[in-house]
Amino acid sequence: MPVDDHHGLHGAQTDAVYDRAGFGATVPRGQSPALVVVDLTRGFTEPGFPSGAELTAEVTAAAALVAAARPRHVPVIYTAISYTPAEAGGDAVAWLRKAPGMRALREGSEAVALDPRLDRRDGDHLVLKKGASAFHGTGLAALLTGLGADTVLVCGATTSGCVRATAVDAVQSGFNTLVVREACGDRARGPHEAALFDLHAKYADVIGLEDAVAYLGAVDRAGRRVS
């Protein structure tokens, strides 16, 4: 996967070290994918919010993935961070001690609303979470199992935070995992590139939007690959 050389993430020496360690094998692509759109809420996708950034391109790419999933009845699962007033104002959530800016993501607020440019429909699923991973403390693994998913396509924000944590936990939960490069965004380029590099080496295939759309288009309504 190409990354920016000036971040020190790519080069012959790095490639040799990772090859020697046995990283970077290709992830199998199963017959029953599901799409997990991580935290593309207004608090992350709009720069007017303290925790937000300009993620128009990434939201547009995620919307393209959703559109590709619809005709083949691939499940679409959105996630959002949402805290009760007690959680946001108290000391019970350990992550908020390290990242107090997340306290603004209160249930019912504009910050936790899904980006309106995304096409959320009644049949889609919404997973509310308290931490970085969409799996930790939620029923996402059970939901994916119940949906018969064997492969998870992950996109969203932020690449170095909730996307990375979700992709790692997807693998640890037994799912083949693909991360869609153009549909992932972060507040800074360095952490974004570093996260994609690490994910591609150890946990997932980081793939392009065109590749992801083609894969979604190659499954039929029952989730089986089209020959």
Automatic annotation (TrEMBL):
The EC number(s) this enzyme carries: 3.5.1.106
Stored InterPro entries: Isochorismatase-like_dom, Isochorismatase-like_hydrls, Isochorismatase-like_sf
Residue intervals of the Isochorismatase-like domain: 34-210
Keywords noted in UniProt: Hydrolase
Pfam families: Isochorismatase
Keyword Hydrolase listed: yes
MF terms in GO: hydrolase activity
UniProt entry tagged with the keyword Ribosomal protein: no
Domain of life: Bacteria
PANTHER family for this protein: ISOCHORISMATASE HYDROLASE, PEROXYUREIDOACRYLATE/UREIDOACRYLATE AMIDOHYDROLASE-RELATED
Protein name listed in UniProt: N-formylmaleamate deformylase
Organism: Amycolatopsis thermophila
